[in-house]
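User: Hi! I have a protein structure encoded as tokens and I'd like to know what sequence might fold into it. I'm fairly new to this, so please keep things simple.
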């Protein structure tokens, strides 16, 4: 009847995601780089972006597909999203479990024991930060481009965060400079080794940021 309160049922369901894994040019590889794409992108697109990082072929590269697919505006391809504001808290937990399962499966099935580095672009940057805070997923560095430090991560113990390369294009209208500086301040206040990279560009991967990512990877591996 109109006006009566609705009863909402939350029902667990099993869904299947996938991840693309690219072996290194030479075994056993120096590292495992696991990346998370942005809103409206796919694992294929993200893998292509990660491959623009110089010397990335020295490691295993894994691009994880988000669990919520949809067609792009032209309906020419299937893309995905990590979450919406609807049931956001549950989506965060679902994604945490999914990411943990992907990394555990990749390591187990391929016998990979190399240092783990996490990377995320746009909406995927938040996923990289969340994964880095998961005690079950020890990692040595985070590459976060054109995204933000989500509230659920800010509220945690940020001092556990490994070194971070935080990137933003000067002309990026989706990530204002004030937000970028706020994330830098929060990470620095927690004692995190965070390295800002502000480059000429928009909401995008650029050659300049890819070069900085290669330097960052090399430095953190040398410190291991």
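Assistant: Happy to help. Inverse folding works backwards from shape to sequence: for each of the 224 positions I chose a residue that suits the local structure. Here it is:
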């Amino acid at each position: 009847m109109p006006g009566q309160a609705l009863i909402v049922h939350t029902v667990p369901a099993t869904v299947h995601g996938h991840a693309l894994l690219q072996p290194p040019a030479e075994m056993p590889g120096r590292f495992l780089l696991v990346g998370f794409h942005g809103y409206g992108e796919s694992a294929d697109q993200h893998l292509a972006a990660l491959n623009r990082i110089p010397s990335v072929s020295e490691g295993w590269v894994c691009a994880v597909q988000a669990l919520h697919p949809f067609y792009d505006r032209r309906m020419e391809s299937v893309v995905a999203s990590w979450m919406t504001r609807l049931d956001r808290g549950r989506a965060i937990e679902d994604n945490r479990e999914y990411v943990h399962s992907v990394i555990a499966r990749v390591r187990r099935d391929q016998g990979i024991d190399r240092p783990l580095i996490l990377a995320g672009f746009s909406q995927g940057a938040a996923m990289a930060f969340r994964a880095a805070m998961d005690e079950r997923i020890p990692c040595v560095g985070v590459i976060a481009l054109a995204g933000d430090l989500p509230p659920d991560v800010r509220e945690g113990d940020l001092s556990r965060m490994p070194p971070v390369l935080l990137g933003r294009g000067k002309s990026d209208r989706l990530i204002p400079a004030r937000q970028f500086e706020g994330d830098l301040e929060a990470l620095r206040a927690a004692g995190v080794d965070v390295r800002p990279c502000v480059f000429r560009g928009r909401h995008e991967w650029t050659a300049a940021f890819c070069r900085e990512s290669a330097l960052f990877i090399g430095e953190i591996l040398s410190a291991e």
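A useful reference point when you look it over: The CA atoms of residues 45 and 158 lie 30 Å apart. Feel free to ask if any position seems puzzling.
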